[in-house]
Amino acid sequence: MRCLICKQGETRPGNVTVTLHRDETVVIIKAVPADVCENCGEYYLSQEVTSQVLKMAEDACRKGVEVEIMRFAA
User: What domains, with CATH codes, occur in the chain?
Assistant: First the structure.
């Protein structure tokens, strides 16, 4: 797929680190599977992966953590 941001690069399968912020909570999820632009590094998550990432972040917020760093588990 051609990158929607830079419009120059093609995306390739890879892994990224996703950082999410909500109020006073920061959630960092490592090794998230994504399609990554070979030119600018922009990444695109599938719907399934996005759902899992958001659930992981929501769980961290519910626990009341300030900073949570975790590895993505498929």
Answer: 11-71 (3.10.20)
